[in-house]
């Protein structure tokens, strides 16, 4: 959820429509954007995938959208912008007319009456509330008026940029640019992959692996060399190690290790520890391992209970305290560039788990379009990758992570200039 820090006066339709791509970070395509309001103040912004024209599921779609927006208990109204696939040329044939009617009905029922709505086509936009050709001539105003509006100019003056679509940005970010380094990572990985796949959940081995991840996070923006990069990538081939890392990124390595232990994921070490070459002098890496020494029983119980809840976006997550807790957002934000670096360091099967983790981070933030982009990239890399497929299915039915629905736990990037909350439905 994003709250306005510096006020920008919005006085016309083109001003509001100019606000949307800046708050989203890109120009929405085939989308419905809902903006909550409290009086004249704009509040939470949510984007949903546009359903087929006059969809028979319009009522269900609208009910879902209204229920998600109703999570903002301070809102008392909303605005709706439909970014369509075509211009609205025939006054009697409004694209998405049924969906808009159902949205008005559903939002009324949850106490968020629609105060205004717009349809934005490929070349023109117009109000959904005015069908008078004298007042609002057909086919509407040119979309150039949005780019030429005061609000667009003000955002640009403040340094805001409207970029390419998330999927285009993701493709550029995860592409291998240094092929020599990627080859070195592949070669180095031959040493680690088999061992970590077999013994990644051995108690001390997992502790050392988490220590390697923590070391890399702490040193960033110093990038890991080919040996450490290969080691980190190889460690994610075990899905339970991947899950433990995800919990560690949201909390701490100690809490994640305790959660893995409480859920019976660990087993005894049966061989020598595998450590990345050239890291703290090789075997000295074992001395840097995460430990569970003297973990209180109540903390072990809390970590075990929260382990799965964290993976599911904070559902019923209580932490070690008494109330719902947010993930460690600075840790998750700090993990993203490292994960992107690793994704761009390989074209092998080890790329898929990294893309899945990146998508999960975006999903926890409530950035559904970005999450979907990473899950699609994961599917392209390794068809049927289970966790990415499951989370993508949750996105497809409009399920937003609990973290993102609660202002107390939501990603603070919304307040500090981050993008709008998004769901795919």
Describe this structure in words.
The protein has 425 residues and is an alpha/beta fold. It has 2 domains: 13-163, Cytidine Deaminase, domain 2 (3-Layer(aba) Sandwich), CATH 3.40.140.10; 170-422, no CATH class. The chain contains 17 helices and 7 strands. It has helices spanning 13-24, 58-69, 97-109, 144-147, 150-157, 166-174, 179-199, 203-219, 226-235, 239-250, 253-262, 297-311, 329-343, 351-365, 368-381, 386-396, 402-405; strands spanning 31-38, 41-49, 77-83, 114-120, 124-127, 141-142, 421-422. The protein has a 7-stranded mixed β-sheet with strand order 6-5-4-3-1-2-7, sandwiched between helices. A hairpin with a 2-residue loop joins strand 1 (31-38) and strand 2. Helix 7 (179-199) crosses helix 9 (226-235) and helix 14 (351-365) packs antiparallel against helix 15. The longest helix has 21 residues, at 179-199. The protein is elongated, with a radius of gyration of 24 Å. This is DUF4192 domain-containing protein. It comes from Arthrobacter glacialis. It holds the Pfam family DUF4192.
What topology emerges from the helices and strands here?
Layout: H1 13-24, E1 31-38, E2 41-49, H2 58-69, E3 77-83, H3 97-109, E4 114-120, E5 124-127, E6 141-142, H4 144-147, H5 150-157, H6 166-174, H7 179-199, H8 203-219, H9 226-235, H10 239-250, H11 253-262, H12 297-311, H13 329-343, H14 351-365, H15 368-381, H16 386-396, H17 402-405, E7 421-422
In summary, what is this structure?
The chain is α/β, with parallel strands linked by helices. Helices cover 48% and strands 9% of the residues. It has a seven-stranded mixed β-sheet with strand order 6-5-4-3-1-2-7, sandwiched between helices.
């Amino acid at each position: 959820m994003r709250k306005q820090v510096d006020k920008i006066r919005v006085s016309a339709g083109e001003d509001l429509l100019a606000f949307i791509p800046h708050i989203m970070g890109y120009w929405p395509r085939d989308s419905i954007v809902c903006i909550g309001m409290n009086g004249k103040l704009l509040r939470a912004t949510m984007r949903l995938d546009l359903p087929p024209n006059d969809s028979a599921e319009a009522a269900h779609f609208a009910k879902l959208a209204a229920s998600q927006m109703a999570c903002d208990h301070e809102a008392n109204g909303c605005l709706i912008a439909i970014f369509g696939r075509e211009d609205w040329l025939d006054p009697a044939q409004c694209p998405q007319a049924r969906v808009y009617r159902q949205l008005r009905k559903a939002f009324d029922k949850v106490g968020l009456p629609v105060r205004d709505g717009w349809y934005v086509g490929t070349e023109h936009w117009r109000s959904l509330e005015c069908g008078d050709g004298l007042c609002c001539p057909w086919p509407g105003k040119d979309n150039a008026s949005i780019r030429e509006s005061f609000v667009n100019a003000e955002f640009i003056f403040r340094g805001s940029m409207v970029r390419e679509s998330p999927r285009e940005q993701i493709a550029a970010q995860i592409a291998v640019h240094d092929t020599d380094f990627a080859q070195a990572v592949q070669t180095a990985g031959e040493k680690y992959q088999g061992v970590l796949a077999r013994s990644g959940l051995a108690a001390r081995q997992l502790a050392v692996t988490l220590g390697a991840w923590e070391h890399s996070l702490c040193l960033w923006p110093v990038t890991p060399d080919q040996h450490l990069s290969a080691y980190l990538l190889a460690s994610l081939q075990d899905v339970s190690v991947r899950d433990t890392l995800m919990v560690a990124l949201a909390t701490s390595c100690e809490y994640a290790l305790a959660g893995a232990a409480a859920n019976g994921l660990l087993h005894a070490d049966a061989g020598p520890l595998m450590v990345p070459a050239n890291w703290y002098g090789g075997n000295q890496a074992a001395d840097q391992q995460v430990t569970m020494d003297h973990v209180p029983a109540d903390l072990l119980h809390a970590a075990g209970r929260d382990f799965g809840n964290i993976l599911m976006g904070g559902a019923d997550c209580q932490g070690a305290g008494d109330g719902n807790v947010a993930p460690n957002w600075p840790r998750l934000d700090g993990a993203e560039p490292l994960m992107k670096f690793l994704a761009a360091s390989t074209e092998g099967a080890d790329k898929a788990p990294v893309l899945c983790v990146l998508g999960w981070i975006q999903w926890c933030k409530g950035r559904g379009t970005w999450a979907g982009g990473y899950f699609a990239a994961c599917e392209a890399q390794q068809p049927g990758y289970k966790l990415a497929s499951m989370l993508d299915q949750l996105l497809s039915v409009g399920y937003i992570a609990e973290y993102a629905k609660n202002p107390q736990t939501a990603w603070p990037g919304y307040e500090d200039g981050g993008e709008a909350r998004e769901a795919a439905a």
